[in-house]
From TrEMBL:
InterPro entries: Choice_anch_I, Mesenchyme-surface_protein, Phytase-like_dom, Quino_amine_DH_bsu, WD40/YVTN_repeat-like_dom_sf. It comes from the Bacteria. Keywords: Signal. PANTHER family: MESENCHYME-SPECIFIC CELL SURFACE GLYCOPROTEIN (PTHR46928). This is Alkaline phosphatase. The keyword Signal applies. Residues 338-427 form the Choice-of-anchor I domain.
């Protein structure tokens, strides 16, 4: 195949051709001729809320920093359910992984500080696990599962601990295995869901593994809180099996209560997750006033196949909602997060009338679509429960009741105005670290605390307590940029799917537009067009890459837009798979150029990462050293298409002493007569030490042509990106992989979210202003 990589000075307008090729109205086979600009996607959601009307992320605190002295930092430690002391200053969270509870000082919510932990081994047994906590006065009620894996003989207790000195003043046996606790608004009683959970590896007679029934059944415990803790007493509330059967529950003889919430009238709402039911109980009398089924829901236009493709044409048929968390909206409605368990899960949340059990509103596919629009779609969960809403809390913002719904798998919390329970209105999405579990509103301080349970020390993606402040008062110290910083629009009511962005290029025709591409975390390969004039930046079209008329999957790591097409740097799983690929404006691959065989043979799993066009030459960056090159010296390549020749130059990487770390290159660009190179470490969160753009003068002499050691080019630091990434008040994202100087003169940087695989999933898109100012070092 003849190379077309020399066509770098053609005068055709790529933008109009790109738009025509991306348009759903452009018939296949009729996309080669120039055409006027056609339909681009628009966003159905206004994400650009005024500062006074949104939450601002203030801090992300990794709870492994709160570990006991001498504990290995790699020890798994999580934050699941949290509560806050009445003064709003101390967050107390459960840590089932480490079998303890933790204390965090949030007097300054911008600078949370660990106050240490209390091991359950000190209160009972080393195998005890906390399941929930609730603060009351000077005490915290710690709900504890003491079952120890003996599912047929569940047990548990609630310990009343004085917060000031962390001593237990009372312990009350609960007669079974507990899950969640809630305290009534008037502080008179607490309700505890006694799950007596099933053994997922046990097979009951006539059933499949993990099926119900698995006695004993669950129940509710009511705990009186009048007087001193020595006077508190528990009262068991059992459920009428026939009442539950009449309500249509799945296995009424084994209800397995999950989550509780209490309204201002003292009514308790209780989810029966595995039974797909909800119970309403009078907290004062213990009378069960209503039990009803949560029903089922058909959900269309979602991704249901874990095939590496973000395909939103699938459906799930009449799945049970199987709600987890529940919260009261006023005194007559409840909202549920429909996580699902063994039979169901509908990827959304619902609102019920508690008197009738009617569903007055259901999210349908909108939670999953929200994840897609913000780059948080989790392909690895497509066949299961998608974004998996699990946590939920109801609070009040600016006098409006607001539902806060957490997606366990897509790592976000969404806020909805539920002033009209039958017509919730989406307000905001907030990113979290993986596995948001506990959603704690602190209305007296206009704060939101999210505790996350996923902890991956190997990949340095650690469990956290994240803090957000609502309104103008917190705006000055809020995250910059606000999340989301980049979103996709919808075409024909379907959002453009995206994620794992690692390549950026200026549009040669439009100054306020960039091109980017997804890597192989989501296939098939596509080139995306980004409108920079929108806030947040808007992905408004997607061009599929094809070869011989068929869609292809490529690990696109670099992109350079030319007036008549695109040049892609594609990384291979092995050295020989690294290629420069020339793509026409209609997305068709025109030719491929492989690396020289002797260079490819010296590469491991990290190869081509960036590409830039400079006149008659093409510049590329290799991510890691060749096997035979000196340690710390990586290569920059110059390819001349007219001669089909390669020359190589050396680039000295910064050192690292961190265990498991390595330094490598990501993007390369040509700007103001020099090469700009993005260099980064493999660390994220508080461990990150190097994310920077360096300037390298374009060499006038020849480079080496094979594997001989190349001459190292001098470099100077042009921009330290760590402060920019830290300004988001989240963990620093590991994969800062793309940057470009747009036609408008501004410098833009993007992070690769790895498709949420071993990563938080948040994409940070930075507009750093004038490139001349931003790159002064």
């Amino acid at each position: 195949m003849t190379s077309n990589l020399g066509r770098v000075t053609a005068a055709a307008a790529v933008t109009a051709l790109f738009a025509a090729a991306c348009s759903p109205s452009a018939p296949e086979g009729e996309q080669d001729a120039p055409a006027p600009q056609t339909q681009r996607a628009t966003s159905p959601i206004d994400f650009d809320l005024p500062d006074a009307q949104r939450y601002h992320r203030l801090a992300t605190y990794p709870v492994y920093l709160n570990r006991p002295a001498g504990e290995d930092p790699a020890t798994e430690t999580v934050a699941e359910i949290s509560t806050v002391t009445p003064d709003g200053n101390t967050v107390i969270y459960t840590d089932a992984a480490a079998k303890r509870i933790g204390f965090t000082d949030i007097r300054d919510p911008r600078k949370p500080a660990g106050l240490g932990t209390l091991s359950l081994a000190e209160l009972g047994h080393a195998d005890d696990q906390p399941t929930s906590v609730a603060a009351l006065g000077e005490f915290v009620l710690v709900v504890i599962d003491t079952t120890g894996g003996d599912f047929a003989n569940p047990s548990g207790r609630v310990d009343i601990v004085r917060v000031a000195d962390r001593t237990r003043v009372r312990s009350i046996d609960l007669g079974g295995q507990p899950d969640s606790i809630a305290i009534s608004p008037d502080g008179i009683f607490a309700a505890i869901a006694m799950e007596n959970q099933r053994d997922e590896e046990f097979t009951p007679a006539g059933g499949a593994e993990g099926d119900l029934p698995q006695p004993p059944t669950g129940f509710l415990q009511l705990l009186s809180l009048t007087g001193a803790p020595t006077a508190w007493a528990a009262r068991k509330v059992d459920f009428d099996v026939e009442q539950a059967r009449a309500a249509g529950l799945d296995t009424p003889e084994d209800l397995e209560p999950e989550y509780v919430s209490i309204n201002s009238r003292g009514q308790i709402a209780l989810t029966l997750q595995e039974n797909n039911g909800i119970a309403i109980i009078d907290g004062k009398t213990g009378v069960v006033s209503n039990i009803f089924s949560a029903g089922s829901q058909t959900v269309d236009d979602i991704d249901i196949a874990e095939d590496g493709t973000l395909d939103q044409t699938g459906s799930i048929e009449a799945k049970p909602r199987e709600p987890d968390a529940i919260g009261w909206i006023g005194d007559d409605h409840v909202a549920t997060a429909n996580e699902g368990d063994w039979k169901g899960g509908t990827r959304g949340w619902s609102v019920f009338d508690t008197a009738t059990g009617e569903v007055v509103w259901d999210a349908g596919n909108t939670v999953e679509q929200l994840a897609v629009r913000t780059g948080l779609h989790t392909e690895g969960r497509a066949e299961s429960k998608g974004p998996e809403p699990e946590g939920l809390a109801i609070t009040e913002i600016d006098g409006r009741p607001t539902a806060l719904v957490a997606s366990e798998r897509s790592n976000f919390v969404a806020a909805y105005d539920v002033s009209d329970p039958a017509a919730p209105v989406f307000r905001q999405i907030m990113p979290t670290t993986p596995g948001p579990e506990g959603i704690l509103a602190v209305p007296a301080r206009d704060l939101l605390v999210v505790s996350s349970e996923a902890d991956d020390a190997e990949n340095r993606v650690r469990a956290s307590v994240s803090i957000y402040g609502y309104g103008q008062a917190y705006a000055a110290d809020g995250a910059k940029p606000a999340f989301p910083s980049i979103v996709s629009g919808d075409i024909d009511a379907h959002p453009i799917g995206w994620g794992a962005l690692g390549a950026l290029s200026a549009d040669p025709a439009e100054p306020n537009r960039l091109f980017t591409a997804t890597d192989n975390a989501y296939g098939p390969a596509r080139i995306l067009s980004v409108d920079l004039s929108a806030t947040p930046a808007l992905i408004d079209s997607a061009l599929p890459i094809t070869e011989d008329g068929e869609a292809v999957t490529l690990d696109v790591e670099g992109i350079a837009a030319r007036p008549d097409g695109f040049l892609l740097a594609v990384e291979g799983e092995e050295g020989a798979g690294n290629e420069l690929i020339n793509v026409a404006t209609d997305g068709a691959i025109e030719d491929r150029v492989t690396l020289p065989a002797e260079i490819a043979a010296e590469l491991g799993g990290q190869g081509l990462e960036g590409v830039a066009v400079d006149g008659d030459n093409v510049w590329v960056a290799l991510q890691r050293e060749l096997k035979s090159d000196p340690l710390g010296v990586v290569r920059i390549g110059r390819y001349t298409p007219a001669e089909k020749s390669w020359q190589w130059f050396g680039y000295q990487l910064e050192p690292t002493a961190a265990e498991g770390d390595w330094i490598g290159l990501s993007e390369i660009a040509v700007h103001d007569g020099a090469l700009l190179v993005l260099e980064r470490d493999k660390l994220n969160g508080p461990d990150a030490r190097l994310k920077a753009i360096y300037r390298v003068q374009i060499p006038t002499e020849d480079g080496v042509k094979g594997t001989e050691v190349p001459k190292v080019l001098p470099k100077t630091r042009a921009r330290d990106l760590l402060p920019d990434l830290q300004a988001t008040n989240s963990f620093v994202q590991e994969k800062v992989e793309g940057f470009a100087v747009a036609g408008n003169g501004n410098l833009y940087v993007v992070t690769d979210n790895d498709g949420l695989d071993d990563a938080g999933g948040e994409t940070v898109f930075l507009d750093l202003g004038s490139a001349d100012e931003a790159l002064k070092g």
